[in-house]
Design goal:
By secondary structure, this protein is an alpha+beta fold. The protein has helices at residues 30-37, 54-59, 94-104, 155-173, 187-197, 199-212, 221-226, 232-239, 249-272, 310-314, 343-357, and strands spanning 8-9, 13-14, 16-17, 20-24, 43-48, 63-66, 86-91, 138-141, 177-179, 276-280, 318-325, 331-337. It starts with 7 loop residues before the first strand and ends in a 15-residue tail after the last helix.
Length: 372
């Protein structure tokens, strides 16, 4: 098992990228993303706590949408971090993603937090999809690194940045304005705190989920970890959660820091009349599958150069759309992040970008099926 993080599981092994099977498909919804990219399915559902919808979508030239948290019920989904866990669509097109979101969004008494979403989507998301949605919009490009693991000296960073710059030009060509001088102070430090905050929620959340299943063979996260069946990398990151609680003062401090960051972004948007932020979903291409990923406690992480932690940290929705390919034929995802409950708006921006650029191409190993 990988417990909603990474590109490998103790049952099925590593998930490989359809565009280059030597590389991973990101995670944790990597199997869903790889299957859709390979044309094994039309659409899929992913779970996104820190990027598990958007990472696989970016790695496989797909559209992936992380909804605002109260919009879609998490009932029945094994939790990881309830304050950030959400469920959303992965699809080959923006229209398909919007259709799925319209189906799954809405109030569910089994997940009371969805009550906050009542009245937020007043019309079907798919009705907001217009090819000219970018015209007159105003975006801010976040070009600063969000991850401490980003290596600006690497060749794949340069390749991804070239694709990002081309995507920005394409957005402008559709009549949008893109601000490039926006800076968010101490952003990598703030996002490291986002990762730190997660350890306080996981233990109680998983134990509660297991208690909800009367026939579950294990009743606690601690008991599962003691089996030795969890991948070493994920076991290492989960062990620090055991015994931690949201009642600890440090968790409250980190939640206040998240609110500070959210207000900072909202103030930037208000001051500069910004409709949404855009950035590369990752500063690096999907990495090679490590030969020892099933045994090495240091392997299995898909967050190298990831810019996907920001949206869940501040409670904003975000959509990934294909931005193009590197010279090595690897997909790059453009991420569009808007205010809470701006889901229809950012999906409309993604759809308009998709229609204008048509970047998605099927993987060479699994071309489109032809009727005979």
């Amino acid at each position: 098992m990988n417990f909603a993080l990474g590109y490998a599981g103790s049952i099925s092994g590593p998930i490989r990228n359809p565009y280059d099977p030597r590389r991973h498909a990101n995670g944790s919804s990597g199997g869903t993303g790889a299957g859709i990219a390979a044309d094994f399915a039309t659409v899929g559902i992913g779970e996104d706590t820190g990027g598990s919808i958007r990472g696989p979508a970016a790695a496989a030239a797909l559209v992936g949408h992380r909804p605002t948290v109260p919009l879609v019920s998490r009932y029945g989904v094994m939790p990881s971090r309830p304050s950030a866990d959400t469920v959303g669509p992965i699809a080959r097109t923006g229209k398909d993603a919007a259709i799925v979101l319209d189906v799954i969004a809405g109030y569910d008494p089994s997940d009371p937090v969805t009550a906050y979403s009542v009245g937020r989507l007043t019309s079907p998301t798919v009705a907001s999809l217009k090819p000219d949605a970018l015209r007159g919009a105003r975006f801010a490009l976040i070009s600063q690194a969000m991850s401490p693991s980003t290596d600006a000296t690497s060749s794949d960073f340069s390749a991804v940045r070239t694709v990002l710059n081309q995507a920005v030009n394409a957005v402008r060509s559709q009549g949008a304005e893109v601000l490039t001088d926006i800076n968010i102070p101490r952003l990598p430090d703030r996002l490291k705190e986002a990762a730190d905050a997660g350890i306080y929620e996981t233990d109680a959340a998983i134990d509660g989920y297991l208690a909800w299943h009367p026939n579950a063979p294990f009743k606690t996260l601690r008991a599962i970890l003691q089996t030795g069946h969890v991948l070493p990398w994920r076991a290492r990151t989960l062990t620090v959660s055991v015994g931690r609680s949201v009642d600890e003062p440090e968790f409250g401090r980190l939640q206040r820091r998240a609110e500070d960051t959210r207000i900072q972004l909202l103030a930037l948007m208000a001051t500069h009349k910004i409709d949404a932020f855009i950035y590369a979903s990752s500063d690096h291409s999907p990495g090679l599958v490590a030969a020892d990923v099933m045994t090495n406690p240091a392997e299995g992480d898909t967050r190298h150069g990831s810019n996907r932690a920001l949206a869940p940290w501040v409670g904003f929705p975000a959509t990934v759309v294909p931005a193009g390919f590197t010279p090595d034929g690897l997909p790059v995802g453009l991420e569009i992040m808007g205010r809470a409950f701006d889901d229809a708006k950012i999906l409309a921006y993604a759809f308009a970008f998709e229609q204008a650029t048509r970047h998605r191409q099927p993987p060479p190993a699994t071309p489109r099926l032809q009727a005979h």
